[in-house]
Design a protein that fits this description.
By secondary structure, the protein is α/β, with parallel strands linked by helices. The chain is 35% helix and 16% strand. α2 packs parallel to α3.
Length: 225
């Protein structure tokens, strides 16, 4: 039996991860609201950027889900926008990993973070979020080297996913069809697809995988349609 720490389990991808983790595994969730899931979890109402983190033992994985989609032209972005995106995506992850990585090293375990396809390819209006998520990728690769061989660290880089965070991008049928058309596979993602990869990466089936940024992006990051 494994014990998973989920950060942001009340959101679309985080909630899907909780629902897909094996029955019998323990789940601890940090978020500002309790996830609406049909299984037993240990929930802590926590802002990981500002609150003290509780003492936990026996953690076998950390899955850090928080993110941001702050899409504006550079002349409309304030320095505070860059700072806020960096804090949510990078500093929050750093605070959690610093708090619990020793336990992971003792037990052996895995960390999963989240980036975006916009860190791989240039997209207009993505400068703030792409800068922050590129920081997540660099953090993940560095920690994969530093924490090996006891702890594996991998990063998932999705394209647009149908979650509450992205609802303004998929706000109507025209926006949805336009988003699909930009992708070679002519679709965007569902949170369950991303969750399946996260659950795989923290399982023993992925014990040979570390230091990877894994794109789940309907082809947009590598295929020209």
């Amino acid at each position: 039996m494994s014990k998973h720490l989920i950060i942001g389990g009340s959101g679309g991808i985080g909630k899907a991860i909780i629902n897909q983790l094996p029955e019998g595994d323990e789940i601890v969730n940090f978020s500002r609201s309790r996830p609406a899931v049909n299984r037993q979890i240990e929930h802590h109402e926590i802002d990981v950027l500002n609150d003290d983190l509780p003492e936990l033992e026996g953690i076998s994985s950390i899955i850090y889900c928080p993110g941001s989609i702050n899409l504006k032209p550079i002349n409309s972005l304030k320095i505070e926008d860059f700072q806020n995106d960096f804090n949510v995506n990078v500093i929050g992850a750093v605070r959690v990993i610093k708090a619990y990585h020793r336990d992971l090293k003792r037990n052996g375990g895995s960390i999963v973070t989240f980036s975006t396809v916009a860190s791989k390819i240039g997209m207009p209006f993505h400068s703030s979020v792409a800068a922050a998520k590129s920081g997540v990728e660099g953090l993940s690769k560095s920690l994969a080297a530093e924490l090996a061989p006891k702890v594996r660290v991998n990063c998932i880089a999705p394209t647009v996913t149908d979650t509450p965070l992205a609802e303004h991008l998929l706000r109507n049928e025209k926006s949805q069809e336009s988003t699909k058309d930009r992708h070679p596979l002519k679709r965007y993602l569902q949170p369950e697809e991303i969750a399946s990869m996260a659950v795989y990466l923290v399982s023993d089936n992925a014990k040979g995988i570390t230091g990877q940024v894994i794109g789940i992006d309907a082809g947009i990051g590598s295929v020209k349609s």
